[in-house]
Amino acid sequence: MASRQGLSSTSEIPNELLLVPQLQREVVAIVGPGNSMQAPFLINLGNQSQVPIISFSATSPLLDSLRSPYFIRATHDDSSQVNAISAIIESFRWREVVPIYVDNEFGEGILPYLVDAFQEINVRIRYRSAISLHSSDDGIKKELYKLMTMPTRVFIVHMLPDLGSRLISIAKEIGMISKGYVWIVTNGIADLMSLMGESSLEDMHGVLGVKTYFSRSKELMYFTTRWRKRFGGEELNNFECWAYDAATALAMSIEEISNVNISFNKTKINTSREDIGTDLDDLHVALSGPKLLQALTTVSFKGVAGRFQLKNGKLEAKTFKIINIEETGERTVGFWRSEVGLVKSLRVNQTGIKISDSLRTITWPGDTTFVPKGWELPTNAKKLRIAVPKKDGFNNFVKVTKDENTNALTITGFCIDVFDNVMRQMPYAVPYEYIPFETPDGKSRGSYDEMIYNVFLGEFDGAVGDTTILANRSHYVDFALPYSETGIVVVVPVKDEREKGEWVFLKPLTKELWFLTSAAFLYIGIMVWIFEYQANDDFKGQTILDQVSDVFYFSFSTLFFAHRKPSESVFTRFLAVVWCFVVLILTQSYTATLTSMLTVQELRPTVRHMDDLRKSGVNIGYQTGSFTFERLKQMRFDESRLKTYNSPEEMRELFLKKSSNGGIDAAFDEVAYVKLFMAKYCSEYSIIEPTFKADGFGFVSN
Fold first, then answer.
1. pLDDT tens digits, residue range 620-633?
2. Banded pLDDT at 604 (limits 50, 70, 90)
3. Looking at the predicted structure, is the pLDDT value of residue 18 above 70?
């Protein structure tokens, strides 16, 4: 506490700052209290008397709720480290945590801030473990055994070293400081590890800690040297640095107001005759309090703990050190900075660093460097009962097989793989087992609707398989998002309309084009005869039959570009060039069309639309137990014309029989099943319009 007398120098801390002067009730400032539990009373006292209360060790954020302008926190409050803790949790992608804290104002103060920080990164606090400062070892062990029954394996410890060392020691004893567990201690323990013995450090091997960081300044090194000379081997901790800076700030502030009249209002609080007077009744009001408070809030200097400058009545924390506790002491694995988050080093600008690479290699409990999952199967976990359909066909989706010797069930298929993959991605363990929906003799117990209704009745906790999301089913169970392609389609056979027969070579050209081509050949022959007859004397000397044969031989030989050079007539040459170009186009088009007709299949569905099926009265197939049966009835198809199948092979057999022999000419089924069928018989069948609405496969839950 500071007396009414001013201070002449700030280089040394006079005893007047730490001792109560002779006039004990007339003080202008109080340095204290020692902890957060004592603070409310003292803060209220200072508020009434206008005496600044300067604390270097009361760190609970709950003290802010007192809203006293005369409370100065010359330290960091505990809420300043929650962002560093949440950054660690986010970097390793843990989804659940359990805070373990001392059951008092110090322990409870950090919780609201932890909850807010974890909500921002979508992390759940499964349970809050409050341990009394006076708990026995058996009481602590009972609480830890309770935590072992939960799936969460990430624990955040916020307490002071005396209780923390007991907690860690007992956790080590019962096997909770082992492989798979994650322990993170706040600066309540990390800053005061020097007070813990070597055995406690051995127990904490693999624990992470968030520790207050002070930069290595000249002021800190000078103060550390003086401390060692004065106190020998006793290690300097953060609170002693803050205490020195708090005293320095107070001394500087008192010097600043040295010209202010330091006096007290001696008005005594009135008490009734029946009331018994106390020392608090003589509490006086310091008239210098507002001026001293203003001086304290504006003072700024480079102290041993860094820059001393108050913001909202307290020091602001911008950097924390992340330590990995080992048997021989602590090892720095990174830092947290308010500007960039987690970084490996403070020397390099790491603004764009990836979170996953932001810390050095960490040794976890169990002496392993493999990052724990953050959850394990609890010791008393109840397995979810998941129903799966028992079916004879379409086993690519769900297949249930039983070993004849051991009766062990093996359940496989696409739906099972998807569900298993989803469960492996969960941030915590969910034990479950598959139970086939079958009778004791291994046959199906009923339809999909019956299986889902049994989930509603509570016989099963859920259902996995090729269960389609339907509106009527959603009335009594919940569905997950669909994981398959949606829709219902119609499959029909196709026929090959490719031209066949001995006259197929005439098909590439139409009758009109054949006639026009023949006429062109005759025309070209006549024109060549006219031109050659006028210009070629040798041609004139031939007989009429030879002239006609030469002319038409020339005309038809252009098809194969085997014609000879015509005689001297320029017109004949020009006509030959044009005619060869026309013949080139004609022959290439003819060849391409004929090749396509002879090689490419021209598959056409036997039915073009669903309405044609209704009019034709053919048989339609649907999968046994499927809801598509009700859809077909709603579309007014005759029930006697509806046939069932259990597998793609049975569907094909029905198609081969056709309606005339008790088979089918179309199948009505979901896209997933149809694609499986088409993968085997795509060349023989086709899907026709329209596609009917369905929501696809989804997992069922009660």
1. 999 988 888 888 88
2. low
3. no
Residue 257 pLDDT level (bands cut at 50, 70, 90): confident
Q: Is residue 500 packed enough to be buried (19+ CB in 10 Å), middle (13-18) or exposed (0-12)?
A: exposed
Whole-angstrom distance, CA of residue 247 vs CA of residue 250: 5
Can you say whether the dihedral through the CA atoms of 19, 24, 29, 31 is positive or negative?
positive
- Tokens 């020691």 -> residue: 169
Q: How far is CA 529 from CA 387, 516, 552, in A?
A: 91, 20, 9
173-185: pLDDT as tens digits: 999 999 999 999 9
The gap from C-alpha 90 to its chain's centroid, in whole angstroms, comes to: 11
Long-range contacts of 353-356 (CB under 8 A, 24+ apart): 355/87, 355/90, 355/91, 356/91
In this prediction, residue 20 carries a pLDDT of 35
Residue 375 has pLDDT above 80, yes or no: yes
Q: Which amino acid is at 31?
A: V
Nearest CA among 88, 83, 89 for reference residue 114? 83
Chain-centroid distance, C-alpha 503? 67
Task: Check if the beta carbon of residue 588 is closer than 8 Å to that of residue 609.
Answer: no
Residue 572 and residue 567: Cα distance in Å, rounded? 8
E strand intervals along 124-282:
124-125, 129-131, 154-158, 182-185, 208-212, 264-265
In this structure, are residues 648 and 677 in contact, taking their beta carbons and an 8 Å threshold? yes
Average pLDDT for residues 121-141, to the nearest whole number? 93
Q: Which residues pair with 600 in a beta bridge?
A: none
Cα of first residue to Cα of last residue in the chain, in angstroms, is 66
Q: How far apart are CA 256 and CA 218, in angstroms?
A: 25
Q: Answer yes or no: are the C-beta atoms of 483 and 420 closer than 8 Å.
A: no
Tokens 């598509």 identify what position?
628
As given in the structure block, the two tokens for residue 173 are 């004893």
Place of tokens 């309540």: 188
The pair of three-digit structure tokens given for residue 229, joined into one six-digit string? 């000379």
CA–CA separation, 435 vs 200, rounded Å?
48
Query: What CA–CA distance (Å, rounded) separates 700 from 460?
Result: 10
With H, G, I as helix, E, B as strand and everything else as coil, classify residue 225.
helix
Q: Residue 611 contacts by C-beta under 8 Å, 6 or more apart in sequence? A: none
Residue length of the chain: 702
Rg of the chain's alpha carbons, rounded to an integer?
46
Phi, psi (degrees; rounded to nearest 5) at 453: -65, -30
pLDDT, tens digit, for every residue of 302-333? 999 999 999 988 898 999 999 999 888 889 99
CA triple 231-251-222, angle to 5 deg = 40
The more confident residue out of 496 and 514 is: 514
Write down the H helix ranges in 78-131. 82-91, 105-108, 111-120
- C-alpha span between 329 and 214 (Å, rounded): 18
- pLDDT tens-digit map of 411-424: 999 999 999 999 88
Instruction: Tell me how far the alpha carbon of residue 233 is from its chain's centroid.
Output: 50
Torsion sign (Cα): 632, 633, 636, 637: positive
Interval 683-688 mean pLDDT: 83
What is the rounded distance in angstroms from the CA atom of residue 4 to the CA atom of residue 23?
9
- Residue 55, H or E segment: strand 53-55
The secondary structure of 447-465, three-state, reads CHHHHHHHHHHCCCCEECC
Q: What is the pLDDT of residue 501?
A: 57
Does the structure show a pLDDT above 70 at 350?
no
pLDDT in tens, 541-563: 566 676 667 666 666 665 555 45
Cα distance between residue 620 and residue 634, in whole Å? 14
Above 90 in pLDDT, residue 574?
no
- Asked if 209 contacts 190 with a C-beta cutoff of 8 angstroms, the reply is yes
Residue type, 143: E
